[in-house]
């Protein structure tokens, strides 16, 4: 009986080790699942945040573009006055920061410059039609963006604003 007692003890010890290993494996699997679920939730939250940022940026671009066109048409007969030119410059200035982001590829979506180029180019040349070349100094990033992207916009692309010939 003494010989079976160490065998039984050995068997119990081996069973306890196997159970402990199975328990550790189950915990590792559960931890991996939790980590994966957490990673997926983080990715989903980032996408939602990026989408919200893109929508906010689009609204800012659209609003500044519309404001520029509206001010240009409202002030068309008074462009010789400093007040009219100042209002037109104020309308287009918010797009200078956007152009900075787009020129340096810092936008939250790929190819953002291609998506929003018409708004920025048309707003810039609309304001420039009223203010003249002095606008380039007030919005240097937008001016650079518009000059670089101008060839992509056809002559009729800005609703009556005559764009300079590309090149």
Task: Give a verbal description of the structure.
- The structure is a single chain.
- This protein has 167 residues and is mainly α.
- The chain is built from 6 helices and no strands.
- The longest helix has 72 residues, at 4-75.
- The model has no long low-confidence stretch (mean pLDDT 85).
Q: What is the topological layout?
A:
Layout: H1 4-75, H2 82-92, H3 94-103, H4 112-131, H5 135-138, H6 140-149
Helix pairs in contact: 1-2, 1-4, 2-4, 3-4, 3-6, 4-6
- In total, how many beta strands? 0
Report Rg. 32 Å
What is the share of helical residues? Answer: over 70%
Uncertain ranges: none
One letter per element, helices H and strands E, the order comes to HHHHHH
Strand content: under 5%
In summary, what is this structure?
The protein has six helices and no strands.
Comma- or semicolon-separated keywords:
167 residues, mainly alpha, 6 helices
